[in-house]
Amino acid sequence: SNPTYNLERPSVARDWTVHPMMSIPIFCFMLGYWQVERRKAKLQLLADIESRCDLEPEPFDSGKEYLEYTPVRITGEYDYSFEFYLGPRHEVIEGRDKGAPGGYHSIVPMTLETGERVLV
Length: 120
Prior knowledge:
Blueprint: H1 12-53, E1 58-59, E2 72-73, E3 76-78, E4 84-93, E5 96-107, E6 109-112, E7 117-119
Parallel strand pairs: 1-2
Antiparallel strand pairs: 3-6, 4-5, 6-7
């Protein structure tokens, strides 16, 4: 009444299904790690933008390369002969797109005292 054990090698079909099944948890872990790192980078980007928006506006210099969301002060006149509309845009309330038309973005170049044009 000794127990008998089957010492045969498992079938090839079983080996073929086990390896992909073992990779699923590894793949899910990698996706989770990527999302955590992506969130950290996004929070840092938002903090950088917020810190730039709090700066005092500086006079505009066309020769200088500005970072996005850097406040500048410009003086000149709007040139409505080159005005164009971008849209339609959707109404966004509390971060959710309501799908209702919310109007258009009006893009108007400003002619500076130096003769250069800047989109506003």
